[in-house]
Design a protein that fits this description.
The protein is α+β, with helices and mostly antiparallel strands. The protein has helices at 54-62, 69-77; strands at residues 2-11, 14-23, 34-39, 49-50, 66-67. It has a five-stranded mixed sheet with strand order 4-3-2-1-5.
C-alpha cells in the first residue's frame, strides 16, 4: 500500500522532515518513490511547509496512496488545497 508520510532528516536538535510517497512496508528512513515537499518545524516563519507539490500529492492519492495523519493535519493547517 502506498502512503504519503514524513521522513526525518537534518541534524541534531534541528530536524527537517521530507514529505515523501513511499510503500508503507519500507522503513521511515528507507526507500521512497518521490519527494513531495519539506516541513521545518523550527522555522521562524509562519509557513513551515516548503516546496509542496500539491498536484503530485493529488496524483498519488488518485493512485491509491493514503495520507498519514500528520501530513494531513500539516496540509490542512497550512491551507494547501488538494
Amino acid at each position: 500500500m502506498l502512503s504519503i508520510r514524513l521522513s526525518r532528516g537534518g541534524r541534531v536538535h534541528r530536524p527537517v522532515y521530507t514529505i515523501v510517497a513511499a510503500d508503507s512496508r519500507n522503513s521511515a528512513t528507507g526507500k521512497f518513490l518521490e519527494k513531495l515537499g519539506q516541513y521545518e518545524p523550527q522555522n521562524d516563519k509562519e509557513n513551515t511547509l516548503i516546496d509542496v507539490k500539491a498536484e503530485r500529492i493529488t496524483y498519488w492519492i488518485s493512485k491509491g496512496a493514503q495520507l498519514s495523519d500528520t501530513v494531513k493535519s500539516l496540509l490542512k493547517h497550512n491551507k494547501v488545497a488538494l
